[in-house]
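Illustration 12: Endoglucanase.
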Amino acid sequence: MWSSLKLGSNILYMLLIITTSTTISSCHSAFTSQDYKDALEKSILFFEGQRSGRLPSGQRLTWRADSGLSDGSSTTTYHVDLVGGYYDAGDNVKFGLPMAFTTTLLAWSVIEFGNNHSQEINNAKVAVRWATDYLLKAATATPDTLYVQVGDPYIDHRCWERPEDMDTPRNVYKVTPQNPGSDVAAETAAALAAASIVFKDSDPVYSNKLLKTAIKVFDFADRYKGAYSDTLGSVVCPFYCSYSGYHDELLWGASWLHRATSGGNDSSYLSYIQSNGHTLGADEDDYSFSWDDKRAGTKVLLSKVGRLNQWRSPNFQAQYTPGGLLYKGSESNLQYVTTSSFLMLTYAKYLNSHGATASCGTSTMITSDKLIALAKKQVDYILGDNPAKISYMVGFGQKYPQHVHHRASSLPSLQAHPAHINCGDGFQYWYSSTSPNPNILVGAIVGGPDNRDNFADDRNNYQQSEPATYINAPLVGSLAFFSSG
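Figure caption equivalent — predicted structure in token form:
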């Protein structure tokens, strides 16, 4: 296996370069296991607020209702069933790349830490399946085609309306052999492969369908290479432009297929990784793990079957806020915090299972305890152990964001206001209101504070106040770990 299985320049080393303002204490605990259980339940409940399609009878966030029931079939160009899936954040567009990444991370959370909290495992599986049911349709509706988006984001963003009231165009976008999208296709393959592991025991027929589809979608991604934003840039950029390219997704997708098929005698994906690792950028890192860049996650995933020895020290200094929060960027910074925390806990689990430690250079020893302590500090910060004493999870704790940048949450529900709310009225009467959101989007993690621990609870400040599915998904795994006590 390629040399980066030693986890060369890696995000995990970066997180262990602690600034003078950051301290780690394995003794201090701001929260009890019951607090983490409460947060875990809420973090999964959040996905019900993001649902598109016909809602089930067991829908718990009852202020939401059916939406997007003609997605895919209402356009003049395509006539396919694309009902379902998730809205990615506070808007009403279904973006395929972040939805697939969300699904992969939700599935990975269940795979690694689902046994830590059996009471919530079924709800987590439901959240995974809501996504995979949609991704299966997107991947199988038309041969050699993957449908990757529903909704024109520019028109959608000019309106502030409930999903239930949508009257904006529900345009459909796809990748094909002529207009490839290896990034979004390989991420979709990763999502389906990871989910096949989740359902392998509880629903083997569904699991087999997911895996077979994942294999076909990955072959499509690898056979017709190209970034989806090269042909769909006018509607996916700058929202979910493939800034890192598609090489990282190909390795990520192959890695998940290797894990999903490794129970048999299929070694083809491991051979693919060995043969293509260097060419596809396995030795590179951007010191982050996100819907766009999968390199750090791939290395941790493969470390389960690889060598756990020396790490090469990168010339990089991790940035933290004065309060100790990992800081990567000014927009939706908590997405990097939740993914990094999850990777640390997952790698700590792998270290323990191998009975090993790892070293950075010649001096710093990486132990599972160090990784767990640092991950806990990040998770606790999110839940309220921070200078502002505010929980960045909506509905958790005594103080949390009230003006979340989220259409359905900020507008009155159909029960409270049955009449249609048009595009302009939503902006005029509710978006600009200083009143708290009428509907609590329980469990949502917002973008979070700036590099000085400052947070503006302002609906207009989407950089800090907008939630997203891919912020929550990895936190599900971390909270499951800590809720086990």
